[in-house]
């Protein structure tokens, strides 16, 4: 048996004993070293998002390989790895390099044995071997953030963001900041918009060229700062108002990136003539292809990106209830569990 932290209801966390997972021929058994509390799990904890209970969350993980299946050749016992998605390698989506669309994409993020969820808030986890990526000697908490970092890398790739381009990121929470860091590394001039001054100060410390407090005249202030508009706007906070602002501040041929989900969701209107005349594109982004996870892991492993400012606090697994309370108080960045 092993310990796991389960969300057993709204604002309820229980430490439970669950059976050790059974390893298959293509699987690895991971001893979890760090796990981030993602926004999705925080929303399930607060009741903002619906879920079946009990749920063992945890899909932002890093750990050490404790055992490997008989067919595994890419890693060995003792390797330090990040954990990403899987892919079959042969379906149409995989062959087109779009394995986000593969039926096996979320294969590693399910948990058997009476619990629903990705299963990373536990002492051990089974992962198929194609979903683990060696991370060298990187600190565990930063390694665990390869998964959210991969989502920001995925966004920059789908937007085709390049040196000299401009962007505005709406929302300076964890995902907004990771988008900022990736876009700055890609050579863009980036502004960050948020209501919260402390979050904006954090964005400045992470390299934002400009921070703007959200307000009624935000569209004019963005356009004034970027001579008529930006190439990309990232909606890293899900609201109708943000989506409308993000669409309005684009220049001709600009792209809006719908990065955040909203709970509850409010649809927003798109003027087809405006999209037509300005050649605007809308790009939805969630999760990442495996290649994005590989890039994220390499950036962390080689120290090319420092994610330590994103780590807000760490708690032992058995104090998961306190960790969830910390993560759902504002403003906080990533709270990490250490089994
Ligand atoms: Zn596939």
From TrEMBL:
SUPFAM superfamilies: GroES-like (SSF50129), NAD(P)-binding Rossmann-fold domains (SSF51735)
Keywords: Metal-binding, Oxidoreductase, Zinc
Gene Ontology MF terms: oxidoreductase activity; zinc ion binding
Organism superkingdom: Bacteria
InterPro entries: ADH-like_C, ADH-like_N, ADH_Zn_CS, GroES-like_sf, NAD(P)-bd_dom_sf, Zn_alcohol_dh
Listed cofactors: Zn(2+)
Residue span(s) of domain Alcohol dehydrogenase-like C-terminal: 175-300
Start and end residues of each Alcohol dehydrogenase-like N-terminal domain: 24-135
Family statement drawn from the similarity comment of this UniProt entry: Belongs to the zinc-containing alcohol dehydrogenase family.
Record's protein name: L-iditol 2-dehydrogenase
Source species: Candidatus Planktophila limnetica
